[in-house]
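Dear Dr. H.,

I hope your travels went smoothly. While you were away I took the liberty of generating a structure for the chain from your last submission, since the lab meeting agenda had it listed for discussion. I wanted you to have the full record in hand beforehand rather than looking at slides cold. The sequence, exactly as received, is reproduced here:
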Amino acid sequence: MSELALFNNNLPDYLKDVQLDDVTRALAGGGGGSKRISLRGGKFRMVVNGEEVMTSKNEELEVVIVNAAKEVSRQFYGSAYNPKADATPPDCWSNDGIAPDKGVKEAQHHNCGECPQNIKGSGQGESRACRHFRRLAVSMANDVNGDVYQLQLASKSIFGKGDLEHMPFEQYAKYVGAQGYNLNTLITQMRFDENSDTAKLFFKPLKFLSREEWEAAKRQGDTPAAKNAIQMTVSQTDGVKLKLEAPKAAPKVVEEVEEPKKREDKKAEPVAKRDLKSVMSGWSTDDE
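The corresponding predicted structure, in token form, is as follows:
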């Protein structure tokens, strides 16, 4: 029997809906490497093993959230961000936002809540030096069975309050859950806030997944790629290596530069409150 005859004929019924497992996908060249979505410069950028491979021209991206870290994580860098410098791991980080991760060599404090880097004004201006993040694992809405990407959200995309068209992630997740639905049953639209000087996202539901897409989303959420996406820092995802450090010299006094003034975010006009069922009542649960 030829190879073509084997794969084109007599496929057993029990194999018709079987998807490629992680081992086969990795060996076949699919799903290999660490993948994430970067929001740098207000663009959706696909990054594989630390290399940017594609930049979206759209300010919107449709995804399925297949997994998410239950806790807000934290990261602290002792030096200011320099886009021209080589990527480095954070000096201190926490996956649960309570205590430093076990992999941290020089923790800033044993308790994140009491850490001096968590005090208002410890960063630039009135900000905190230790930043909040939320990690998501997402699949593209048009390819739920495809690759899983890590998406790391900064505090402006997590916290706050808007209307149904302009929800930060925490509000969006609570809204969907309050209607009795899971995030992995929906196609979620992510859109940049055009009135923000930093990469700030809004979230809103577009439509329900078909049964087949939903089953795929559940499987994706249990894959090693999805679990790694919600646990690993960006530097770990990109494979950034620690560098050998020279002996430390006496600390130098560095003058703090005044933070550039940013435009105020425009508040969206209030919209009459609707629940998710009424928003989606006219939509089909199957692909059209």
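Two observations you may find useful: DSSP finds eight helices and ten strands in the chain. Residues 24-69+134-240 form one domain.

With kind regards,
E. W.
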